[in-house]
Every structure is written in structure tokens, then in C-alpha cells.
Amino acid sequence: MLHNCSNHLNIMQAFPELISFKLGVYVEKFVEWLLANFMGFFDALNRVIRWFLLNTEAFLQWLPWWVLVLVVFLLGWRYKKLSAGILYAFFLSLIGVFGLWELTMTTLAIVLTSVIISLLVGIPVGILMSYQAKVEVVIKPILDGMQTMPSFVYLIPAMMFFGLGMVPAVFATVIYSLPPVIRLTNLGIQNVSKEMVEAAYSFGSSTWQTLLKVQLPQALPTIMTGINQTTMMALSMVVISSMIGVQGLGYEVLSGISRIEIARAFDAGLSIVILAIIIDRISQGIADKYRISE
What we know:
The chain has helices at residues 2-13, 23-37, 39-62, 65-79, 82-97, 101-131, 133-148, 155-162, 166-190, 194-202, 207-236, 238-241, 249-258, 262-293. The chain is mainly α. The mean pLDDT is 83.
């Protein structure tokens, strides 16, 4: 009797096996369909991204270390203050002292390429969302999913479309870091004063003129904050991207962890932190300058 009761209780507690739906199966089939029908497109995209990425890396590797340190110093001085510029330049020099300058340039090339692609895609999408309410309703849940999905998941389609290496790392990083710039571009344009927009139209401005000369300049501080957040999220993908064979600081961290080499992992990890702090402070300083100038 007790045994029968416990069986009934287990049946009531367990979710019914008859009600089952595997969404991932259909996602996998969709990816396979894309590969079968659009492989030429992905090959062309692979070549374009690889060309831009390799040229960016080559330029950064060719650039003398002191030039980049000087640029960071000047940007810190211009958009923060003199002491900040000196501090940022010192921090950046520490990466060279650690012997990780070349790996840092590789990492920076991946981040810059990912951010540029994210901006080319994200800002127009954000503008479209601000003008079309129906588009906003459709895209917002997609952005929610992109931001909450575990970042490791993005490596799977990236590898299927582009194999291993730097290009799939850029692809995965773009997907992961795209939402902030879309959201904040949309928010910035929507928060522009309606009276200002109506005044532009009343003086005979077209939709494009109003967008370029009124809405985008007014929304620029918010958009700059979106760029800042996108850059930070791209940098946070560095270690994860190293799992698909990407060289750079992330690979040093991963190798140090897997081989229990504490010093190697710490130096590379600290270099990532330094890079993140410098990029964050300078980009936020630029956003603050635009906000003050309004």
C-alpha cells in the first residue's frame, strides 16, 4: 500500500514525459540549413573579416609601443585629467613589462574588429527601432535572449560557420556585445525632446536631416555609453574565445589555468583588467565630455 502511494506521489511530482518539446533540435536544423544554402556567403564574410582583422593586428604590431602609450596618455589627459593620462600610460607600459605586448595587440585587434562590426550593425538597428514601434517589439525580446544566453553557447554556431580561429571569435563576440549599443541608441533617440524634433520639421527639415542634425547629436552621449558597454562586453569574451584556438591574453589565462601556472594566468589576467580599465575610463570620459557640451 505504501509502495503504491509513493509511486503515485512520484508520478504527481515528475513532469509528464508525454509533454516534451526540444527547441534546440530545430535550431540545429536551421543552422544546418544555413550552412547548406548560404555557405558562399559565410565564406565571403569570413574572408572580409579575416582581411580586416589581420590588417588591424599587423598595424598594431607594427606601431611602436611608445606611440600607443603616448596616445593613451594624450587621450587620458584630454578626456579626464593630466594625472589620469599619466596613470593610464603607466598601466599600459606594465603590460610590456610583463612581456605580453604582442599578445595584447592581438587581443586588441579582435576587440576593435568586433566593436566596429557591432557599431555598423547596432547603431542602424537602434535607429530603426526608435522609428518603428513594431520593429522594437520584435527586436527587444531577441536582445533579452542575446544578453542572458550563456556566452559559451555562441561559440557553437561560430565554429560551425567559420571553423576555428580568430574569425569565429569575432563572430561570437559581436553577437554577445551587440545588445547594449542597439538598446542605448534606441533609448537616446527616443529621449530627444519632441519639441526640438517638431521645431526641426517645422523649419522644413527632412527626416534624414532631422536625424543627422538634431536627434543623433542630442543622443550622442547615450550612444557613447552604449559603445562603452559594447566594448567592455567584447573584452569580456577574450578568455572564452580562447577556447576555440584564439591566441592572445585570453589564451594565456586559459593555458595558465589548465597547467596550474599561477604566475602566467595572473599576469595575463591583470593585463586584461588594465586594458579594460583604460578603455572604459577613456570612452566614458568622451561620453561625459559630449554630455557636458550639451
